[in-house]
Amino acid sequence: MAGNIRLKICDDAAQVAIEAAAMFDELIRANPDSVIGLATGSTPEATYAEIARRHKEDGLSLAGVSSFNLDEYWGLGGDHDQSYRYFMQDNLFRHVDILPFNTHVLNGKARFPQLECEGFENRILAAGGIDMWLLGIGGNGHIAFNEPGSGVDSRTRLVSLTQETIDANSDGRFFSDASEVPRCALSAGIGTIRESRRLVLLATGAKKADAIAAAVDGPFSEDCPASLLQDHPDCTFIVDRDAASKLSN
Ligand code: PGA
Fold first, then answer.
1. Could you report the per-residue pLDDT of 40-74, keeping only the tens digit for each?
2. Which of 16, 80, 198, 222 could share a disulfide with 76, CB 3.0–4.6 Å?
3. 122 neighbors 128 (Cβ within 8 angstroms)
């Protein structure tokens, strides 16, 4: 059951990035004050590079844009080179004209995590909600750090990472050893994400094929958090051929 999910299957990861960047480009040019949701991980890096290129070469301005990131490692400050604040600064923010005070990344060192999470939800509401949120997907179907079993109405909160996610993030791309990976994170909930007016999920590579098949063809189930997007009214999955290889048609 694919529900309402719109699928765009691209030849390769480079094309996925171009398609995703084009959707944000179109949104932002139509409404320069757009509120966008962002993601970290390897997959969106090329999309951010393409958005930065469009800023530099094609006059795309993010000066009026506000952004909200999905998650942050618990215990890492924004100056830590594996924090998601640092990732965003390095991969996107420093390359474009978004204003620092309009970028919202959860504070992994907040003294009171529950207040930090409530504040994040309130800042989204104060901004008028999110127009379009970029998502990745874990090999186990997670979105943000909403691991299997996360509720469809879950909100921003402190969560534990699964061993699978810890291992995936210590394969040398990010942390070099599993012992370095924080065990917890602050993460927007599935309910938080589902309230975004539009969703764009990216997946590349064969390692994501099972998760994409479960999300699109499987049941609407907490066992695969990304399947909980099936009834969203405006959700697009942009995937390459390898990530699409286990889809039913
Ligand atoms: P990745 O992570 O882009 O690094 O594969 C995606 C995710 O775990 O959400």
1. 999 999 999 999 999 999 999 999 999 999 999 99
2. 80
3. no
What is the secondary structure of 28-77 as a DSSP string? Answer: HHH-TT-EEEE--SSTTHHHHHHHHHHHHHH----TT-EEEESEEETT--
CA gap 54, 19 in Å, rounded? 13
Cα(43) to ligand 1 centroid in Å equals 6
CA–CA gap between residue 159 and residue 188 (Å, rounded): 10
Question: How far is 103 from 38, CA to CA, in rounded Å?
Answer: 10
Work out whether strand 132-135 and strand 198-203 pair parallel, antiparallel, or are unpaired. Answer: parallel
Q: pLDDT (tens digit, 9 = 90+) per residue, 80-110?
A: 999 999 999 999 999 999 999 999 999 999 9
- Structurally, at CATH architecture level, domain 6-240 sits in 3-Layer(aba) Sandwich (3.40)
Closest-lying ligand 1 atom to the alpha carbon of residue 138: 8
- Ligand 1: which of 38, 134, 135, 137 to mutate, most ligand atoms within 8 Å of CB? 137
Longest alpha-carbon distance in the chain: 49
What is the model's pTM? 0.98
Phi, psi values for residue 38, rounded to 5°: -130, 165
Instruction: Judge contact between 158 and 184, C-beta under 8 A.
Output: yes
Residues within 6 Å of ligand 1 by CB: 41-43, 136-138
The DSSP letter of residue 160 is: E
| Alpha-carbon distances, residue 194 vs 94, 204, 245 (angstroms) | 28, 22, 26
Residues 12-39: b if buried by 16+ CB within 10 A, e if exposed: ebebbbbbbbebbbebbeeeeebbbbbb
